[in-house]
Predict the 3D structure of the following.
Amino acid sequence: MSAVPGLREDCEELLGAFLQADTVRFERFAELWRERRFHTIFYGKMRALQRKKLTEKTLDLAQQYFLPPYYFQIRVGALYLLYGLYNAQRCQPKQKIRIALKDWPEIQRFHLDLLDCQHYDAAYILRKLRLARAFHFTAMPKLLTYRSKKKIEEEHFKEEFRDPCNRVNNLITNDILEELMNIHNHYQKMKCVISADKSQPDKALSLIKDDFVVNLKDLALEHQEWHQNRLKLLQSVTETDEAEDRKKEEALLKSEGSERAGALARIKYRSYTAPVEVSKSRRHRQVQFESSEPGSSCGKSPSRSKKPSRGPQTPRRRGSSEVRGEMQLAKETVTQHIGMPIIIEEDSDGGELSPPKSRRRR
Amino acid sequence: MNFFLVFLPLRIRKKALERREETIIVDRACRQETLTYEMESHATGKRPDNTTDLIEEGELLLTLNIFYPVIFQKHKDHKPYQTVLVLGSQKLTELRDSISCVSDLQIGGEFSSQPDQAPEHISKDHYKSAFFYFEGIFYNDKRYPECRDLSRTIIEWSESHDRGYENLRSVKMEDYVFNDLSLKIGFPYLYCHQGDCEHIIIITDIRLIHHDDCLDRNLYPLLVKKHWLCTRKCFVCKMYTARWVTNRDSLAPGDPCFFCDVCFRMLHYDAEGNKLGEFLAYPYVDPGIFN
């Protein structure tokens, strides 16, 4: 859908402004809409056929922001946008908004969310659209067309509107933990049954840690915390200019007062960035190492488990440089992948390679 | 004056408009565009006179692309097709009857000696067999006793050598409505009639019927898109669509040569209807007659 040139930019601009306004109220959106005179988007001498196509494509575009994976606020904004576009269109009868079967439960959930959060204006708009019969309930999100294109353009939607989903949290839910707990209990019972002493499993059978589920939960929580911190950091980084950053850092360093700290920080920074290439293979070896010894097969990720130990051990003075390092790191990873860069951090404060076993003991 | 042109699309559109004003003398929709729009919208919002024909809520509406059987080299990037809307509760035979294809209208035989005797019967009346192929099942048209099972040879062929097509079976087309089928959207299926006239069918969309759609059951299957085909004109008057084609014609400038009915008779027969000169004449059906 290469569609209408420039339309995406305009829609994104409006939604971006709505995001900046930091609200989901319709009044604010309407203000923004009026400021931009957005209803004129369908103006221009057009004949019926062209008008129809244009409207179809416009609605199609706006509709994509209405569905996940975008921020709740963007989705509300897209809902208002759809409402505005639907009513501002000049087709007769009006072009409809295509909603695919697979997306409809998502929209119903969204509606419930709106009601739960008492965003009644948004809920009202959604209801209004439904009552106006603005939706086509279709099997596919887009009408299929078949023709071999000379070049197929990739669609780039604005990444900033995307709601960053946390895979780890999605994976480790309460239900899953409970399920795991049940399985674990069951396993334990089975072991008791087959072992000689009925009340306690044989030593030979203890192949797994008993507190595995609890550990997993802790890890998940820890990860969540780290993730949030990182997000905050990311935001602070993106908000301020790089130059400003540098200035701030310099100021911070100066406030530390010692040249040595600066040098240390620089060394540390280098060590933060350096082992990126090595880390993978090393991680691999670590895992192997661990799994070979009995009792640790529950897959307690070594990189994660290490993390809390770092907190108390670091002296306060390190604070600033560490922040700096993390910020640098954050800046680096922004463009790459919101993944698991902690390994690098911990490597740096270890300074050099040490066998994971000894680290865990610390 | 351009105070409202803050949007990129509007600015682009304005530029296009200005260009149009500069270059085009008469600004009006071309015939093609009018046709497309008419086809798309001629039935929107129509209501039946009889309330029993009103389509109920929750009815399914399928969009089918039916491709033309012959794909020319020049169409290799963009295969021409017709688009038809069908209701989920309609029988397959209703779709079969609505598909118009020139090969159904052919008249076989050579009629140079008695042009008035050209039979009224077209191929469709002679050879009524046809089948749809959806998901491993052949839906054969068996409404008439003279219908043959066109799919039989295919099934036998696949069974005879274990060619990797298992579970092919054939059923009667008239027993099935679209709701009974399980279909893949965007998958190419087949409609075959007249023995070897094969149309690819692709289902591009399935949706619930909407208040603003045409709600008259009798108007479905509804043709919403078709091509404007060039018609072959009579070589004499260059005005009317050709009805006859002649071969080895001593009176014609070329071979084959096309004539409309009037010119054909005026040139090839005297006042009493006697044949003049040597030629073979065949009735000709132009693909453009559906325009």
Observations:
- The longest strand of chain B covers residues 197-208.
